[in-house]
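Training component of the fellowship. As part of building independent skills, the fellow (R.M.) carried out the full modelling exercise for a liganded target. The chosen ligand was FE2/S2 (inorganic) cluster. The inputs are recorded below so that the supervisory panel can assess the work.
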Amino acid sequence: MANYSFAKSWQNIPVGARLIRLFLGVTFIYGGWNKATDPGFLNPQSASYIGAQITSYLDTSPISFALKPMIEHATVFGWSIIITEFAIGIATLAGIALELAALGGFFLSITLWLTATWTVKPYFLGSDTAYAVLWLALFFLVRQNTKGRRVIALLPDLRDRREVIRILGVAAASVAAVFVGKRFETSNPTPETGTSIVKEAEFPIGSSKEFVAADGSPAVLFRTKSGVFAYSRICTHQGCSVSYEAASNVLICPCHNARFDPTKDGAAISGPTKIALPKIRVAIKGINIVQI
Ligand code: FES
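Fellow's submitted model of the complex:
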């Protein structure tokens, strides 16, 4: 394997590849930073919790079968996503295991497309398809230099001690970046008590609606003949996000199939928990339905 040179890893690729590499490397580091500084991303009580995000993709994603097992280990999965984004970004800019980083970026973008942006129509309004194509283009562009010779190997040469040290350096820098990000956590803007959840006129009897409660946690609002009421969507078993199924009129947890009856104070009616969903106090105030 050719000796590593940061400068040559940039000089030996075409100008277009440099541009794509710079953009993708910076963007993936920024993506990792964005998640690391989000106080809700790894917090099961938050609406932006990675587990809540995965749960929300279950109904629409073509790979929902692969998502279900992840929900239970969502926090670990969230950590690995942040570290992977940092690692791909750092390796891409540094030119360490660059082809591997490009393939990693490609597979991550494809996964995001099949989950987070799958429902965006037309497809070109969602950015993940564009990222996937850019990563694949970068992969092919860095495989060969302008004279057609390969300049960067796909798999790192693990017999090369310095290459191993460089890769470990990328891993260490990625983990360190997460901890630095945690020190710069932004405050989570959450709606205040009294803020309108929905206009009363737009929420007739028989309606249900997911919303973010005043403490930032996911919740669901109902209206029946007897009035308005709401529950936390955080499952009382292990904290996955429950969803309302109108056909059977129950709240169902995707993790271990706990079911809760919204007409009986959120009581657990089957599954591994006997604890009802916590109630959230709501009321009709003027033209709005608000949390009180
Ligand atoms: S977390 Fe286990 S059933 Fe909801």
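The panel noted the following from the submitted structure. The two ends are 66 Å apart (CA to CA). The pocket of FE2/S2 (inorganic) cluster is lined by residues 235, 237-240, 253, 255-256, 258, 271-272 (CB under 6 Å).
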